[in-house]
Every structure is written in structure tokens, then in C-alpha cells.
Specification:
It is a single chain. The longest helix has 32 residues, at 86-117. The protein is of the alpha/beta class. A hairpin with a 2-residue loop joins strand 2 and strand 3 (24-28). The protein has 2 domains: 2-217 and 406-461, Metallo-beta-lactamase, Chain A (4-Layer Sandwich), CATH 3.60.15.10; 222-404, Rossmann fold, CATH 3.40.50.10890. The chain contains 14 helices and 21 strands. The protein has helices spanning 37-40, 64-67, 70-75, 86-117, 128-135, 222-239, 252-262, 279-290, 297-306, 321-327, 348-355, 374-379, 410-418, 433-447, and strands at 2-5, 17-21, 24-28, 56-58, 82-84, 138-140, 147-150, 153-159, 167-174, 179-184, 207-211, 243-246, 273-277, 315-317, 334-338, 362-365, 384-387, 390-393, 397-400, 426-429, 459-461. The chain is 32% helix and 20% strand.
Length: 470
């Protein structure tokens, strides 16, 4: 039994782990590497294994840094099942098809330039046909239901509380010599977050592979976060201008709409025109509404009382490009939720062009911004940015509201690991080195263990697990 660390190693994105057991090969996640162009170019590299040799894939959740290279597996010969939660399957259908559409468009635009220069054309990273093909290979599993997905491989998904359908993956591996229980945290949700339940705590594991995105910090308390959001709206209302919120279409958009409905009067939101300017986020919100049984108790009560927990009388859903362009004629009084969440593409960049240089405007970041992204540069205090070759002055007020993160913070990661009996060996993934080093030190202090922080390509021998990993 061997576990190959093939992605999300000492970085947040690109989740991919290859498990070899009993003559079978199982891939956990197959995510896009996201960030600067030099990193994203790695998505075109060949897989470090033969995709046709895979027996199956398990997908923790739909975000592209966990699912985005699945269509490339199909291109390279993978024909097996992809096991995931039904809600993840619904959200992956939205994300993968949208990503493929954008990839085809980008390739078309690039090839027009190349044709004029007499250069060879490029292929899109993925195509809609490949996305449709892999979606047909999805197999759904409800939470807390054990399924033998391969001989000697028992899969159980548990609620991770990160986005709708997100799963902690528990794998029980059996062969002639031994049984091993592996737990992959996937992305763990922030405790007491709106809409979703808290991450499930497990008791038994022989090896835990845990995310560490926020391993070096604590989130603000929810009451403080709610107060901070209200203060931003008050300040913006007094000064005029618009509020731009770069929004992840899956999870963050729904959380914000839910909070907007809850605080519509005390935040003064009834005085604003609110735009959900993202066709993908609109579709995802419909999925969140359809899977209401996955919501937490508070959201269930609000649904019984109010009906749709995402509805607002002044909410406008802008699906088309002309509708989005019309927003930029509004000089004051608009709250604009638009993708992409890290500002690397999407409609938010167009809204930046019209608002970022205006002192009256505000930009509110409510999620993690990876190194090398436009969002990270703005959070780090950039005074100028380039958009389509034009230098834009950053005069808008930049806010970072960390309490809305969809990831567990350091204390929540420690608490989640604490639930396991016997302090099993631990591997840290999905984190930048500083966050991982800080979390590893806290784990050593609290539990006396030495967590492993693997580099990409490292192999863990599951037949020789002690109390610590080498």
C-alpha cells in the first residue's frame, strides 16, 4: 500500500493523491493548479501516471482546485468511475462546463493572434466534450454510507462543511496482510459558518491527510465579522460610490446572500441595489436551494419561515454580458458580487476598471487570495494594477473580512485532529509553507507528534506507519 503526493504539496491548489493498494490504483482529487501563469502552465504537463491505469477517482468536492483536471484524465484515457456526493456532482457539472467554455474561448482568441503571426495553434486546456464525458462517469454516494468501490476498498463520505456536498473521505483498505484506515480531510469548513453544518469529527484513522490553508491564523469571531461587514456598508453609504465583492461562485456567493437577507435592515442593505453578476453563481445558488436538506438547523428554520433563504427584494440576477455592462453606468449605490474570487478572470475585472480608481468605492475580499493572483496583490497593498494592458490606480478602499472564510482556521484544524484517538500519523497538504510550518509546530506542542509536510512526488509507505512519519 502506497500513497503518492502528487499535488497541493506546500501549496494550496492542485489537489491530487494516488493510492496504490491490492493491485488497484485510486486517485483522490484531480485539481487545477491555480495562481500565476507560470504555475497554471503546469496543468498542461503530462500526468505522473498513466490515467488509463486508474481504476477509479474519489472527488472530495467540486471546487476546480480539486476537480478541474478531471476532463484531462478523460483525454488521456481514464474510463473509470468518479465517486462523490450528489451535490458535488451537481456543482461540478456547473464548474467543469464553465471552465471548459472559458478554455475554448481563450484558445480561440490566442489562435487568432497566432494565425496572424504564422504560429502553430494551441489546444484548449479542456473542452466541453471532455467535461461532459467525465460527468457521465460520476457515481453518487450519500454521507455516512459505506460502499465497496473496489475489491478491498471501502469508501465512506462525511460532511466537511466547506461547500455544499464537500466531503471528508474515509477509506478502509484491506488486503491479505492488514487493514488500513485513511482519512483525507479535503477542505474543512469554518465552524458555525452560515448555511452548512460543521465538519464531521472522526475517531479512527491509521493516517490522516489534512488541509492547512489557514494553519497560521485565527479567523475573526462571527459576531465581530458581522459587525465589520455592517461598518463597511455604513462607511460606503456615507461616502457614496459602489461596493465590489470578488466572489467565489460556489459557497461564498450563497453565504453572502444568506447573510444579506439576515441583516438587510441593520446593514442598511435595503438602500442599495444588489447585483449577483455571475451566471455560475446564479446556477450554484439554485443547486444550494435544491439541496436544502444539507443545510444546518438555523438555515432550515429560516427556510420554513422565509421560504428561499437567498432571496432579497432588491437583488438583481445578471446573467448576460449586456446586463453586466449596464451595471458600470451606476456611479453610486451598487453592491456588486462578481467572479472570479481571486480576480484572475471573470466580470470582477471589468468592474475594477470602472471603480478601482475611485476613492468613493470599496472592495471587500471575503476569501483566501493565493500567491501571485490579482486579489493577493490588492490585499497586499498594491497601488497600481494592470488590466488589459492599462495601468489602473488603486484608490478604492480595500477591506479583508477574514471571518467569512470557508476554511477552518488553526484552532479548528487542531480541534478536528484532536478528535482522533491515539494521535495517528499526520500529513499536511493544501497550505503555503509558512502556514504549514506554524500548524506543525502547534501540533507538536499540543499532541507531541511530528506532522509530515511532503514535497510533490513524495511517497508514503502505508505498510510501515508508526506513531510518526519519517
Amino acid at each position: 500500500m502506497k500513497l503518492h503526493i502528487l499535488g497541493a504539496a506546500r501549496q494550496v491548489t492542485g489537489s491530487m493523491f494516488l493510492l496504490e493498494t491490492g493491485g488497484h490504483r485510486l486517485l483522490i482529487d484531480c485539481g487545477l493548479i491555480q495562481g500565476p501563469a507560470s504555475e497554471e502552465a503546469r496543468n498542461r504537463e503530462r500526468f505522473p501516471f498513466d490515467p488509463a491505469s486508474l481504476d477509479a477517482v474519489v472527488l472530495t468536492h467540486a471546487h476546480l482546485d480539486h476537480s478541474g483536471r478531471l476532463p484531462l484524465l478523460v483525454r488521456a484515457g481514464f474510463r473509470g468511475p468518479v465517486h462523490t456526493h450528489p451535490a458535488s456532482a451537481d456543482l461540478a457539472a456547473i464548474l467543469l462546463q464553465d471552465a471548459a467554455m472559458l478554455a475554448e474561448r481563450d484558445a480561440l482568441l490566442e489562435n487568432r493572434k497566432r494565425e496572424r503571426k504564422g504560429q502553430k495553434p494551441v489546444e484548449p486546456l479542456t473542452t466541453r466534450r471532455e467535461a461532459e464525458a467525465v460527468l457521465k462517469q460520476f457515481r453518487s454516494h450519500e454521507y455516512q454510507t459505506a460502499s465497496e468501490i473496489l475489491p478491498g476498498v471501502l469508501l465512506t463520505l462525511h460532511d466537511a462543511g466547506h461547500i455544499l456536498g464537500s466531503a471528508i473521505v474515509e477509506l478502509e483498505l484491506r488486503d491479505d496482510r492488514r487493514t488500513r484506515r485513511l482519512v483525507f480531510s479535503g477542505d474543512l469548513g469554518h465552524r458555525d459558518a452560515p448555511i452548512l453544518r460543521d465538519p464531521t469529527r472522526l475517531r479512527k484513522a491509521d493516517l490522516v491527510v489534512m488541509e492547512s490553508t489557514y494553519g497560521d491564523r485565527r479567523h475573526r469571531r462571527w459576531p465581530d465579522t458581522v459587525r465589520e461587514m455592517g461598518e463597511i456598508f455604513t462607511e460606503a453609504s456615507e461616502g457614496g460610490g459602489n461596493i465590489l465583492i470578488p466572489t467565489f461562485a460556489i459557497g461564498r456567493a450563497q453565504e453572502l446572500l444568506y447573510l444579506f437577507q439576515q441583516h438587510v435592515r441593520d446593514w442598511g442593505l435595503d438602500r442599495w441595489a444588489i447585483f449577483l453578476d455571475s451566471p455560475m453563481a446564479i446556477e450554484a445558488t439554485e443547486v444550494y436551494t435544491r439541496h436544502w436538506r444539507l443545510h444546518d438547523e438555523e438555515a432550515a428554520r429560516r427556510r420554513r419561515r422565509n421560504g428561499n433563504v437567498f432571496a432579497l427584494p432588491n437583488l438583481r440576477l445578471t446573467r448576460t454580458a449586456p446586463q453586466s455592462m449596464a451595471i458600470n453606468r451606476i456611479r453610486s449605490g451598487a453592491v456588486i458580487l462578481a467572479g472570479s474570487g481571486m480576480c484572475e478572470g471573470g466580470r470582477i475585472r471589468h468592474h475594477f476598471k470602472h471603480n478601482l480608481w475611485r476613492e468613493q468605492c470599496h472592495v471587500v475580499f471575503t476569501g483566501f487570495q493565493a500567491m501571485g493572483t490579482l486579489g493577493r496583490r490588492l490585499v497586499d497593498g498594491a497601488r497600481q494594477v494592470k488590466l488589459w494592458g492599462e495601468t489602473i490606480r488603486v484608490a478604492a478602499r480595500i477591506h479583508t473580512v477574514g471571518g467569512l472564510s470557508a476554511h477552518a482556521d488553526r484552532q479548528e484544524l487542531l480541534d478536528w485532529y484532536r478528535a482522533f484517538r491515539g494521535n495517528p500519523p499526520l500529513v499536511l497538504v493544501h497550505g503555503e509553507p509558512a502556514a504549514q510550518t506554524t500548524l506543525a509546530a502547534a501540533l507538536a506542542e499540543r499532541f507531541g507528534i511530528r506532522a509530515r509536510i511532503p514535497a510533490e512526488g513524495e511517497v508514503i509507505d502505508l505498510d510501515n506507519l508508526g506513531g510518526e512519519l519519517p
